[in-house]
Amino acid sequence: MTTAQSKLAQIGVQVAPQKPRKLSDIAVVTAPARPTRNTQPMVKDASVRPVKLERGVKLRGKDKIERAPAKIEPTTPENRLAKPSWIRAKFPGGKAVRDLKGTLRESKLSSVCEEANCPNLGECFGKGVASFMIMGAICTRRCTFCAVGHGRPNILDADEPTNLAKTIAKMNLRHVVITSVDRDDLRDGGAQHFVDCINKIRLLAPKTSIEILTPDFRGREQRALDILIQSPPDIFNHNLETTSRLYFEARPGSDYQTSLDLLNNFKNACPTVPTKSGIMVGLGETDEEIYQVMQDMRKHQVNMLTIGQYLQPSSYHMPVKRYVSPEQFKEYERIGLEMGFAHVAAGPLVRSSYFADEYAKAVL
């Protein structure tokens, strides 16, 4: 039994002798129909026509949020919560940051650090660390918490897997995180492109461990998983992002149970691969709801957890409803470990890929 298998066994995960070749060989759980809501968020006037989508044109801020079904009132200086003293990030400048940005542009690659306005960009880029975002920088979803642009994506770049692998080899990375925008326009949601990237990295940078942070592959989950389990990563990550109650406002087009099922079905197919998920706080949830999400994750065999503070990308996005104290984040971590997570990273500036190379050591 490997070290990873031993650690997984300690938290009650059963390790199968062999992984199935097809998802149809295992019990697949599908999401039930959404329950009827007793209280609905404000829904927009259907007569208001949003900006028309054009291929390759990225909508941000107001233009993006106007396309979401829930009505988000713009934040004003009068009703904006002041940031507390513990929300401080390193200035995203300096030679190392400029050099890494230059490397990404030269290789025609995107980073989620830049596209999602990550507060840790300065710190991570300054150390030569980046989380790569594949399949372009235009997302087919319009999540109201997310800074990534929305629109009709361009066609896939067939050279991207090779360019990505060459860049990773050149940077001599120990661990790499690969994420993507949602690609609802693709028959497999982009699963084959993930696998192409994994295979190229293992060919050109065989010492690099690979973590993928995937979308939910809505409507094509079985097709996507059948592809992914043929060449699984070292860590499989899919974020729940928030509580079930807030999905309509925060993650339109997504489903809480579908995301849980994706994590669970992948674990059933690849039991030796650690699974990971993350959530934000500050969108209007309660601590009791956070603990329920954590319990749901454990019931669906999630091994690693990240919890961070939501920071509003623009005044048109969902407002910050609360800033959680560092002491409460420590409490999240304590309770998470008691629940049986192999690793919990919780803090104001924690993000899915923040210090991912260090966190991976807990399970690999």
Overview of the structural elements:
This protein is α/β, with parallel strands linked by helices. Helices cover 33% and strands 11% of the residues. The chain has 13 helices and ten strands. The strands form two sheets. An eight-stranded mixed β-sheet has the order 1-2-5-6-7-8-9-10. It has a two-stranded parallel ribbon with strand order 3-4. α7 links the parallel β5 and β6. The longest helix has 14 residues, at 191-204. The radius of gyration is 20 Å and the shape is globular. The two termini are 13 Å apart. Residues 15-21 and 27-38 have low confidence and may be disordered.
**Residue-averaged pLDDT, rounded?**
84
Instruction: Work out the helicity level.
Output: 25-40%
The largest sheet has its strands arranged as 1-2-5-6-7-8-9-10
Low-pLDDT residue spans:
15-21, 27-38
Gross morphology is globular
Query: Total helix count?
Result: 13
Helix and strand element order: HHHEHHEEEHEHEHEHHEHEHEH
Largest beta-sheet details: 8 strands, mixed
Q: Determine the structural class based on helices, strands and strand pairing.
A: alpha/beta
How many DSSP E strands?
10
Compute the gyration radius: what is it? 20 Å
- β-strand percent reads 5-15%
* Cα separation of the termini: 13 Å
